[in-house]
Amino acid sequence: MNCKKYSALVFPLMSIVSGFVVGAIIMLVFGYDPLQNYGNLLVGSFGGAYSIGETLRNMTPLILTALGFAVSSKAGFFNIGGSGQYLMGWFGAVVVALKWSWLPGWFLIIVSIMSGALLGGVWSAIAGLLRAYCGTSEVITTIMLNYVALYFVNFAVKNWLAAQGHDSSATITAKASLRSPLLASLTSNSTLHWGFILALLVCLIIWIYFNRTRAGFELRSIGLNERAAQYAGMNVRKTIILAMLISGILAGLGGALDGLGNFQNISVSNSLPQVGYDGMAVAILASYNPLGIILSSLLFSALQIGGMSMSVYSNAPTEIVSIVTGSIIFFIAIKYAFEIILKKYKLSYPKFNIAGK
Amino acid sequence: MKRPTAVAAVLMTFGLILGGCGNHGHQTASKTQHTAALVTDGGGIDDKSFNQSAWEGLQKWGKHRHLKKGIGGYNYVQSSSDADFMPNINKLIKAKYQTIFALGYTLNTAVDTAAKQNPQTNFAIIDSIVPHHNNVTSVQFKTEQSSYLAGVAAAKTTKTKKVGFIGGVKSNVITTFERGFTQGVHAVDPSIKVDVKYVGAFTKADVGKSLASAMFNNGADIIFHAAGGSGAGVFSAAKDNRKNNKKVWVIGVDQDQKADGQYSGGNVTLASAIKKVDTAVEDIADKADQKKFPGNKIVTYDLKGKGVDLINDNLSVSAQKAVQEYRQKIIKGQIMVKSK
User: Fold this and answer.
1) Fewer Cβ atoms within 10 Å of its own Cβ: the N or the C terminal residue of chain A?
2) Residue B17 pLDDT grade (very low, low, confident, very high; cuts 50, 70, 90)
3) Share of chain B above pLDDT 90, in %
4) Which residues of chain B are within 8 Å of residue A312 when distances are taken between CB atoms?
5) Which of B271, B278, B263, B267 is nearest to B310 (CA)?
6) Which residues contact residue A57 at a Cβ distance below 8 angstroms, ignoring those fewer than 6 apart?
7) According to the model, what pLDDT value does residue B19 have?
8) How far does the CA of residue B167 sit from the closest CA of chain A (Å)?
9) How far apart are CA B68 and CA A314, in angstroms?
10) What is the pLDDT of residues A93-137, one digit of tens each?
11) Cα-based distances in Å from B60 to B40, B69, B74
């Protein structure tokens, strides 16, 4: 067990280092100075209160979309719909904050966040229901639902929320905003908001859910072996739907917090929000461990925020960051390849283990 | 599970220490050279459209002044999502760029906030309006005028009495193209049918292609597109139709798209409704440098000022003549093209 934990940390770290090395080699090949650029990246993400504030703020939706992906993956489902669920959450929260602005302060925030999260949950539960009752592949349905979400939100914003001739909704009232003068002054006017604290709390809750509750155990069992779980008397259908619901609620919560804390309105968008897909990478890097997700989202967020400084303070294009993150995930994937190969040689008897757990 | 938490704690503390030592100084830049930078919307700097055109304008401006790309000169930053706008703008402000261009309506809120917090920095928002700031200028293009001329050109060329319009995303900026085009077509011949479709994205050439193919199959023989990268599909559909001996045309957008219409058997680009974002960027940067920055104003680039126009790629002589007539009428104010 100890050995397993050790390798759970070593593989990601090795992948991260290798990712940076690949980035450095590519910069060298194209004539950019890797040390200078990585220096700017570090300063851009952690150098100064403002940068730290932005990095933490950028972590918030990453943590939640990653948690969402982790929950469904633990149950054995590949929920690619994080982007759509995030967008629905953002939309739901902003709509409530705009339309029910007469509600009193904190209550308005709570209702907005909850409706955003629920909308995300419903969006993903559709795929869960289809999977549980019709056996439809959740990969296909979540991808399709992403587009339905994008075009539905665009339609609703354009025809309902935005004023005639505009492409964005109005800005939400200050009392519905998650930003605070305290956090802003602490981080010299960054966009850090209370959602960050909430995201950390949710991480803890999901960790407890996975490791300390019966429902979490059932979820993991179904992910390991659906038939065995059914044989053991677990309600597989219920758990499938529940897993997808929670997964969507988390992604939707990410959207709601970003909407109320960061954007404060919603616009017609040209494409699905990238954060849904980034969340998948974050979760994979953390091998679905909720506490590991905090660390890996910090890394991804720092890369994204710091990467912007690279093109401002030196000449390397920001895309280097995408190469680095891409390579990290590539090396993680190779780790899986290694594991699969290793398992192939040892895998004559581990099935007993599952029953014994 | 103790290890990750410990690492997190160390990282956080490290961050806080750095934060404490961080430099909060806001010095005013020494006013030797004017510096300018731009922030893209979701699209890249090489989107063959809006962002690219703006960057070309800024490069021209910088080279003209013997500035270098980078700090103390001119630069760009790309936004990969809407969440990047604010940090991007703030990074440019910290790097002491004096004029910052924001490309597109999605940056409205970011510009509004940044302008409030940084009254010493000039901001220019392209294709949108951010009012009530003395350090923000809003740049608009009368694309309804160039689209109107595209409509005239289409109406004078169509044989089937049916033309089409394909837009990127149904946003205010793009519907302006559609309205102008329809008015232009109907000014020549009200009986011509205009088929209107939206791709829903600026990057989906495949959807652009299937929409265009459907339009051509329904009898349209000219399509005007305002769909950015999705427009590549419109060109490709037109070339397929040409190879089946159907005489169809495409009217390009933003820049001269003659090269995009080239194929082994000829060229499908009839004309291009250009929008000179580059000229606008150059112009605003110049004005800022000469301390004539048009703050709290809407600067409009129109047909008269050559900010927009229709350029001829393969128009017949009679169509060219008609376009010229209408151009003069618009410039003289005899025709008022509606944008909504």
Assistant:
1) N
2) very low
3) 68
4) 37, 71, 75, 77, 91-92, 95
5) B271
6) A190, A191, A192, A193, A196, A261, A262
7) 38
8) 12
9) 12
10) 999 999 999 999 899 999 999 999 999 999 999 999 999 999 999
11) 17, 11, 10
Residue A261 has pLDDT above 80, yes or no: yes
A197 to chain B, minimum CA–CA distance in Å?
13
Higher pLDDT, A136 or A316: A136
Contact A122, A246 (CB under 8 A): no
Is the CB of residue B108 less than 8 Å from the CB of residue A262?
no
CATH numbers and ranges of domains, chain B = 31-141 (3.40.50.2300), 143-275+307-332 (3.40.50.2300)
Given the structure tokens 């990095």, which residue do they identify? A55
CB pairs under 8 A between A and B: 142
Q: Tell me, what's the pLDDT at A348?
A: 46
How is residue B309 annotated by DSSP? Answer: E
C-alpha pair distances (Å), A121 with each of A116, A177, A196, A244, A289 = 9, 22, 20, 7, 21
The burial class, CB within 10 Å (0-12 / 13-18 / 19+), for A247 is buried
What phi and psi, each to the nearest 5 degrees, are found at residue B254?
Answer: 70, -60
In B108-119, which positions are buried (b, 16+ CB within 10 angstroms) versus exposed (e)?
bbbbbbbbeebe
Q: Is A83 on the interface with B (CB under 8 A)?
A: no
Query: What is the complex's ipTM, to 2 decimals?
Result: 0.72
End-to-end Cα distance, chain A: 13
B92 contacts in A (CB within 8 Å)?
A: 312
B residues 109-148 lying closer than 8 A (beta carbon) to A: 109, 117
Phi, psi of B124, rounded to the nearest 5 degrees = -130, 125
Contacts made by residues B283-292, CB under 8 angstroms, sequence distance 24+ = B284/B99, B284/B101, B284/B124, B284/B137, B284/B139, B285/B34, B285/B36, B285/B57, B285/B58, B285/B61, B285/B99, B285/B101, B286/B61, B288/B34, B288/B36, B288/B98, B288/B99, B288/B122, B289/B34, B289/B65
Query: pLDDT tier at B70 (50, 70, 90 boundaries)?
Result: confident
Per-residue pLDDT tens for B299-334?
Answer: 999 999 889 999 999 999 999 999 999 999 999 999
- Give the CA angle between residues B81, A284, A85 to the nearest 5°: 50
The answer to whether the beta carbons of residues B303 and B174 sit under 8 Å apart is: no
C-beta neighbour count of A180 within 10 angstroms: 13
Phi/psi at B79 (5° precision): -110, 125
| Torsion on CA atoms A58, A59, A65, A69, rounded to nearest 10 | 140
- Please write the tens of the pLDDT for every residue from A169-219: 998 999 999 999 999 899 988 889 999 999 999 999 999 999 999 999 999
Per cent of chain A over pLDDT 90 is 68
Contacts of A187 in chain B (CB under 8 A): 19
Interface contact A321, partner B, CB < 8 A: no
For the four alpha carbons of A326, A328, A331 and A332, in that order, the dihedral sign comes to: negative
Do the Cβ atoms of B70 and B92 come closer than 8 Å? Answer: no
Are B202 and A265 an interchain contact pair (Cβ–Cβ within 8 Å)?
no
Task: Give all domains of chain A, ordered by start, each with its CATH number.
Answer: 42-356 (1.10.3470)
Task: Say which residue the tokens 């616009």 belong to.
Answer: A267
From the list A74, A80, A82, A71, the residue with the least C-alpha distance to A139 is: A80
